[in-house]
Specification:
By secondary structure, the protein is an all-alpha fold. Helices cover about 95% and strands about 0% of the residues. The protein is elongated and about 125 Å long.
């Protein structure tokens, strides 16, 4: 019977050792999980900051482009206004020719097909 008691003590010792090692593994896993979560959070903050910078640069470029297009459109309108003022007959003839061309194309496109 003494032998059974010795095996029971060994089994209890092994059980306690397994429990300690399981606790140690659990603690290590939790620590690593917290570390990975922290790293992921830091990386997400960096990506968010980079994305914000990219969006801000793109937005500024779009604004600059819109201002440039606006300025170019105004300049083109002024040039067209000066041309119409300086060349009224040529402008009227060009407008009439353009209208006739568009009208002719519409008549041609809308005509009934031949059978």
């Amino acid at each position: 019977m003494h032998r059974n008691s010795h095996y029971e003590e060994q089994a209890e010792d092994i059980g306690r050792e397994v429990g300690r090692r399981a606790d140690a593994l659990h603690d290590a896993a939790e620590s690593r999980a917290r570390e990975l979560a922290h790293q992921a959070s830091d990386q997400a903050r960096r990506v968010k900051a980079q994305a914000r910078e990219w969006v801000d640069r793109g937005t500024q470029r779009a604004r600059d482009g819109a201002h440039l297009l606006h300025d170019e459109a105004l300049a083109a309108a002024q040039r067209a206004g000066r041309y119409v003022h300086d060349q009224p007959i040529r402008t009227a003839v060009a407008a009439a020719a353009t209208g006739a061309l568009i009208g002719g194309l519409l008549v041609w496109l809308l005509r009934e097909p031949r059978r």
